[in-house]
Amino acid sequence: FNPPFPSRSEPTITTGSVSPSPLPPTIPHPAAPPLALALHLVGRSTLATFRSLFRIRPVPRAAAMTTLLIQWGKHKFHVDFTGYERVEEKGFEAITLAMLKERCKDVTSVPINAMKLLHSGAIMKDDTAPLSSFGLHPNAKIILMGTKPDDQEVLTTTTTGNPEEHALLTRISATLSKATTVLLPQIDTYEQAALNSPPVTDTVARKRLTDTHNMLSEQLMQLLLQLDGIAFAPEFEAARQKRREAVRTVQGFLDRLDRITAALKSGGAPAQAQGGEGVV
């Protein structure tokens, strides 16, 4: 009786070495990122989350290029020039000293005419010069010198109630004070020395008098130049009148000095000894 199913053949047993069947291919695992890269990615993610939570916006390029640290007494603040024309292209070359003073005035209310800005110990003077000419760089430190005037004092000393006119009056008064309190006593001393003029043979003493005249004359001329360099708005009538008086006083001192020297050279007495005409 033959079974309905085919008979299975017996397994064949072979002797000798048996070649192993090949293993399936191994898929390499991705290499772990370096620690520095991982920390960088985590830091960026954290910073983005922090900015989102506190609504912090990235600093514009123009602000990063033109930010300055201003120190005004005990106060410190930053100014930048975002939105100014051609700032992103030229940086501080597109910003003048006058523009910086305007920004400082906006923050402190110190009048521009009463303001001094210093960088590295030097006063920045040329208002038309670009900030790059002063050697400024982003986040450079600027010292602001100046005070905000009292509102009531501004109203009582000016005809316009403008703090800028009050600042001009203060500058003119300071110039005139130097002439009357510093240079006038020296002119008096010079005149007394001229009254007792040394003989022509005493060349050392006479040279000393000549040097004194030259020094006083130069300082008086500098004061006149300072007064002449003060610019006014058309409506600043009080400041204009104050400058006119200051120029007249300083010019009188200079004329008196020249009369003393002329009398000394001619061998006569100075004007004061002849009747006091030399006193201003």
Automatic annotation (TrEMBL):
GO terms for molecular function: adenyl-nucleotide exchange factor activity; protein-folding chaperone binding. One of its GO terms (cellular component) is membrane. PROSITE patterns: BAG (PS51035), UBIQUITIN_2 (PS50053). It holds the Pfam family BAG. One of its GO terms (biological process) is protein stabilization. Residues 96-151 form the Ubiquitin-like domain. This is BAG domain-containing protein.
